[in-house]
Amino acid sequence: MCTLEKRGSIFFLTLTGDGADEHRLNPTLIASIRSALSEVKSQSTRGTALITVAEGKFFSNGFDLAWAKSTSGGSPSEAINLLRHMVTLFKGVVSDLISLPMPTIAAVTGHAAAAGLLLAMSHDYVLMRRDRGVLYMSEVDMGMTFPDYFTAVVRSKVSKPDAVRDVLLRGMKVKADEAVVKGLIDSAHDNGEKVVEAAVRLGEELTKRRWDGEVYAEIRKALYPEIIGVLGLTAKPIVKARI
């Protein structure tokens, strides 16, 4: 599950659980995240920001394949259908983040794999700890193709073709310092506490600008035309400046 807390001008969305929780994305967690993001949107004002963080050794280990298998009653075809259902549901999370009217920061305090990595990359900024955790797109190793919105986000957010190749076609497990070099994340920090501290500093710096959230969201959407096309979003011109 997840919790939502506001401290000053910053919203904290925390993926919660015990130390072994992998924060796998099943319909329940996806619905919880979307509910939290809806609340963030409804409470947004000028000069707010969102930080997403997770408890334990994982940021998120992707879709909950164990849930799909157990819910399917032992039917492989039904398990695949349930996986497809999760893919469809998670598209809404990406859409919510891409259209959220404020800056967003992922504080990656543990492993981020597959849909868990995409969750992080759907934020404006990604910060990661260097002492533990990897980024990993596991689909090529598991024998699965990528949903169209996965590849759209990676292509739009990562400017280096070799980095896109290594992540999607090689299934490379990337640690924080290398992820900075490849352009997958913005910065690496010594441990989980330092990641969160850096995320808060960045959030405070951004909120001081007191940007109009609607304008910010529309500029973000216009910046990533491939993503908004795949998600079915539209960008619209807004002028609120005093001319």
TrEMBL record:
List, in alphabetical order, the Gene Ontology terms for molecular function in this entry.
delta(3)-delta(2)-enoyl-CoA isomerase activity
Which keywords label this protein?
Answer: Lipid metabolism
Which CDD domains would you find in this protein's record? Answer: crotonase-like
The family database entries (InterPro entries) matched by this protein are listed as: ClpP/crotonase-like_dom_sf (IPR029045), Enoyl-CoA_hydra/iso (IPR001753)
Quick one: which pathway? Lipid metabolism; fatty acid beta-oxidation
Q: Which domain of life is it from?
A: Eukaryota
Q: Name one GO biological process term.
A: fatty acid beta-oxidation
Q: Which GO terms describe its cellular component?
A: peroxisome
EC annotation from Swiss-Prot or TrEMBL: 5.3.3.8
Give me the reactions it catalyses: a (3Z)-enoyl-CoA = a 4-saturated (2E)-enoyl-CoA; a (3E)-enoyl-CoA = a 4-saturated (2E)-enoyl-CoA
Q: Which family does it belong to?
A: Belongs to the enoyl-CoA hydratase/isomerase family.
Protein name per Swiss-Prot or TrEMBL: Delta(3)-Delta(2)-enoyl-CoA isomerase
- The species this protein belongs to is Deinandra increscens subsp. villosa
